[in-house]
Amino acid sequence: MIRSSSSLPAAGDSRHISAKPIDLAGLLKEAHHPAAGAVVLFSGEVREHNRGRSVAFLEYEAYPPLAEKTIAGILADAVEKWRLQIAVACHRVGELGIGEPAVVVITASAHRSEAYAANRYIIDRIKHEAPIWKCEHYADGSHEWGNNCNCHARTGDPSIHIYETTEGGSGHHA
Amino acid sequence: MKIHVYAALKDYFTPEFELAETIHNTDELKTCLLAINGRAGELLDTCRFAVEEGFIDNGFKLKENDTVIIIPPSSGG
Predict the structure, then answer these.
(1) Contact across the interface for A133 and B53, Cβ inside 8 Å
(2) Whole-prediction pTM value?
(3) Which of A108, A134, B12, B26 could form a disulfide with A86 if both were Cys (CB 3.0 to 4.6 A apart)?
(4) pLDDT tens by residue, A10-49
(5) In a domain, B77, yes or no
(6) Are A131 and B8 in contact (CB under 8 A)?
């Protein structure tokens, strides 16, 4: 969590990857600040179907040292860009059942427009940039690593995402 | 040089292995990996590379004792 009482990003912990179930209520309980009039929580959860196929469970894998660093950097960027009071992100790894939270982002700011925009910015960048991968395990026993960021097909470089180019403009859409 | 691969790359390589060849940069590493499994070429072209906690590009001079992380396109969320 990054909690800031000034205009600068505050030092936060680096626990953005969790092998344990995410405690949504616990995270939200901690995400209040006297200067924040708006708190937005996004929870990305395991869906029971994918492209018409029945999903049994999901498996997430990460390279934690770089995933932690990448997510911390994204949160710091968001705090600075929208003057957030709080920015939290936590991504699960391991096997997840249907309905479990896979990733949670919480943003708190003085007004709702900044909290909504920052939340979208954070989740979109996590999906594109953090070294985290999803494997769909289907009910028929097959599995598939997928839904990858495919910006490289447009930018020609795996290190450059579409929103970093003039083609992508300033939007941050997954 | 130690190599760690993740996600779909594990369909082509063992998760962790060592290369005895002298490799100076990521282009040479890709050539070496393709010699092991040529079917991984399309996926390797979309991958990023990292050493420790930092992404690297082809200009980064790899050393014999480096552990190189090969990172397929992200699919978190």
Answers:
(1) no
(2) 0.87
(3) A108
(4) 334 458 999 999 999 999 999 999 999 999 999 999 999 9
(5) no
(6) no
- Has residue B39 been placed in a domain? yes
Q: Do B76 and A62 touch (CB under 8 A)?
A: yes
CB contact under 8 A, B77 and A62: no
Token pair belonging to A60: 């997430």
Q: Which residue has the tokens 């690297």?
A: B56
Reading across the β-sheet that carries B54-56, which strands appear in turn?
Answer: B16-18, B2-5, B67-71, B48-51, B54-56
Q: Residue length, chain A?
A: 174
Contacts of B71 in chain A (CB under 8 A): 63, 66, 131
pLDDT tens for A56-75 read 999 999 999 999 999 999 99
Q: Is residue B76 part of a domain?
A: no
Q: Would you say residue B38 lies in a domain? A: yes
Domains observed in chain A = 2-142 (3.90.1170.40)
Range of the structural domain that residue B66 is part of: 2-71
Give start and end residues of each alpha helix (H) in chain A: 24-30, 64-82, 112-129, 152-155
Q: Looking at residue B9, which CATH number applies to its domain?
A: 3.10.20.30
Domains of chain B: total: 1
